[in-house]
Specification:
Number of strands: 17
Structural class: alpha+beta
Number of helices: 28
Distance between the termini: 49 Å
Strand content: 5-15%
Helix content: 40-55%
Largest sheet: 6 strands, mixed
């Protein structure tokens, strides 16, 4: 039987463990903030009271506490031992707050008990510092609570203060001995790591229970764990804290967008640990020799991310305006924009004014292209999800590949014209503002208004003669159908918009539209009557201007059919029993393949690559341990490729999809393969 040499584990009495005279317990910088709430404190106190009332042989187990000894406690070193707390911070901190509350309750009336409690809280050699040393960002706050250092009237707003106050309110002086008896019955398993232990892996295993860490917290731990305390402090101060300051509450989104940009793959954020897993895959080894380089890049991109989220920080008004335009559509394109913005900064720094202007023009061109893509797809009702990864991959190739990628997923002018004719205009304020050149009006506040109102009164009229109540049902329905279209929308100054609510068109035309500073709105005052014909005509005219401002690159007439790039494809699950088609078709390097499911796709791809470059398939399979073998070594589903090589077909669908992606990516064909899901599979 083998034994673990890098890990020791012992069941210990928790109070004895905490009371060790020469030990200081240190919370490393990578740990998350203290989070226990009043509910957790209430349960802990109830458990202590319950075990206190039992016989002497009864104990209460509080779980395992994972720590490692600091390097300072080497043989012959007089430095007091430090236990670096890897897992257990929340429980130990709460226990210390309880002990502090108990100590402050009894110290005047029970000096002997107070002395025992004090040994838990501080070392005899240094009573000015708490034995538990939280992350230094919170150490002062913690010590003010435990050592009662807060000045009279000082604001005390922290989780430490709240939980301490709860314990003080719940503990009576006469029950202090009973609480102390219960505390002395607490036990835990003390796990201590040796120098060769994988602290990160052990931490993740233990952290699988209780309140899970967020992805960015796991990344934080992964980055810092394994470094010396001095290295942790340096990385925390020089890089991590600036990253947190730059991204704030958006830190989780920052990491997802950064990894999409870096990998060219979609990264799942909801559920599981998709972002953290992608980070570990991208950075499998981080040590002091390469961490600073990577961390400097993360910090740089976090500063860029702040500008994207808050465009007012951009160096030029034109960039601020363009970034605000992009933000109209959300943050889905941030991975692409982050890379482009970094290139802009690098190019602008290389020379003088001319270089800076050229770099800015290049960035603005990309931001305009992004807006064209998102607006056109939104207009025709095509999802804008899962686009950015393929654009990032294309950008890594060259500008031509990026332009081609934009063109292939951007709806044509014809599709946009058709959608705008009868469909409601998405993002109307943004579209009308740009059509009208409203940024030229400065700080004038403009509001969106409907020429034909959404809820007309019976007295409303489009020509000044026929009342709305006298319109036929068909006429009313026709007007309502066009109310949200481009041709029926205008921008008005706030004071004019208030007057336009209930007015008929002739009044709006002469007294409101004609007085607007927005030329696009004033144009409506030249129309004699407002009805479906006028709306449709204005829609047609404005659509042509829209197509000019938000153009589609010319790339040979390629048009998107809601295709998914192969590298973004996932196995869909859960469609109804009897449904046989997962895919509508596969576009394979310009070929149209009728492919019902992953299994068929898997077989056809490997057969095709085998016919072209069998040595590539053999090398690929040798590294992965399949799916092609030189003998059919077990029973199952096989497909012979030649006399000596066979493709095993008995894999699950996830393996097959991953294998298809891998072999096509290695062959260099992946950018030319697209998946069209069946109608129902696309919704699963």
């Amino acid at each position: 039987m083998s034994t673990a040499t890098n890990v020791t584990a012992h069941a210990v009495n928790t109070i004895d463990w905490l009371s060790a005279p020469d030990t200081t317990i240190v919370v490393p910088v990578y740990q998350r903030q203290y989070r226990w709430d009043i509910g957790g404190c209430e349960k802990l106190l109830a458990d202590i009271r319950a075990v206190s009332a039992t016989g002497d042989t009864h104990t209460h187990f509080i779980g395992s506490i994972l720590s490692s000894e600091s390097a300072g406690a080497a043989e012959g070193d007089d430095t007091p031992a430090e236990l670096v707390l890897i897992d257990g911070q929340q429980r130990i901190t709460t226990l210390m707050l309880l002990v502090a509350a108990l100590h402050h309750t009894v110290r005047a009336e029970h000096p002997t008990l107070a002395a025992e409690l004090e040994r838990v809280l501080v070392r005899a050699a240094d009573p000015s510092r708490t034995k538990l040393r939280p992350h230094r960002a919170w150490a002062e706050v913690f010590e003010k609570v435990v050592l009662e250092r807060a000045a009279p009237g000082e604001s005390r707003e922290s989780r430490f203060d709240d939980n301490y106050a709860f314990f003080r309110s719940q503990i009576r002086a006469d029950e202090a001995p009973a609480i102390w008896r219960g505390l002395q019955k607490l036990e835990h398993v003390a796990i201590t790591l040796g120098a060769g232990s994988n602290a990160q892996q052990i931490f993740e295993s233990l952290n699988s229970t209780g309140e899970p860490l967020h992805d960015h917290e796991l990344i934080h731990n992964y980055v810092l764990m394994g470094l010396t305390h001095a290295e942790q402090t340096e990385i925390e101060d020089s890089f991590w804290l600036p990253i947190e300051q730059n991204t704030g509450e958006q830190i989780a989104s920052f990491w997802r967008h950064y990894l999409v940009m870096k990998t060219g793959r979609e990264v799942a954020m909801a559920g599981g640990r998709g972002v953290y897993d992608a980070f570990r895959e991208q950075f499998p080894r981080l040590d002091a020799s390469n961490l600073r380089t990577h961390a400097a890049e993360w910090k740089e991109y976090s500063a860029i991310y702040r500008i994207l989220v808050e465009p007012t920080h951009a160096p030029e008004p034109a960039l601020t305006r363009q970034l605000r335009h992009v933000n109209t559509f959300g943050r889905g394109m941030y991975p692409l924009v982050m890379r482009a913005y970094r290139d802009f900064l690098a190019d602008a720094a290389r020379g003088g004014t001319e270089a800076a202007n050229s770099a800015q023009a290049t960035l603005v061109e990309l931001l305009e292209r992004v807006q064209s893509l998102l607006l056109r797809r939104t207009i025709v009702g095509i999802s804008t999800d899962t686009l950015v990864a393929r654009l990032c991959r294309a950008r890594d190739e060259d500008p031509e590949a990026l332009e081609h990628a934009f063109a292939r997923i951007m709806p044509s002018d014809e599709r946009v014209r058709g959608a705008l004719k009868y469909g409601a205009l998405p993002h109307p304020s943004y579209v009308l503002s740009r059509l009208a050149g409203a940024e030229l009006l400065g700080d004038v506040e403009l509001e969106l208004a409907h020429v034909f109102p959404l809820a007309p009164s019976d007295a409303w009229s489009g020509d000044g003669q026929t009342r709305w109540a006298d319109y036929t049902d068909d006429a009313q329905n026709s007007h309502r159908a066009l109310a949200g279209t481009l041709g029926n929308l205008v921008l008005l100054e706030e004071h004019l918009a208030e007057r336009a609510l209930d007015a008929s068109f002739p009044e709006k035309r002469d007294r409101i539209f004609a007085r607007s500073a927005v030329a696009l709105t004033r144009d409506v005052s030249a129309v004699d009557a407002w009805g479906t014909a006028a709306i449709a005509a204005r829609t047609v005219a404005l659509t042509e201007e829209l197509l000019r401002i938000w153009p589609r690159p010319d790339a040979g007439g390629i048009d998107d059919d809601d295709l998914t790039p192969l590298l973004d494809a996932k196995r869909r699950r859960g469609w109804p029993r009897g449904w046989q088609r997962e895919f509508a078709y596969i576009e394979y390097r310009g070929e149209h393949w009728e492919v019902p499911d992953v299994k068929y796709f898997f077989n056809r791809v490997f057969r095709r690559i085998w016919s072209e470059t069998p040595e590539l398939v053999i090398a690929f399979s040798a590294r992965r341990g399949g799916p092609v073998y030189d003998e059919q070594a077990w029973n199952g589903q096989w497909d012979a490729l030649d006399d000596t090589h066979s493709l095993y077909m008995g894999w699950d669908s996830r393996y097959m999809m991953t294998a298809v992606q891998g072999i096509l990516e290695e062959a260099g064909h992946a950018p030319e393969v697209f998946v069209k899901y069946s109608y129902i599979a696309a919704h699963m």
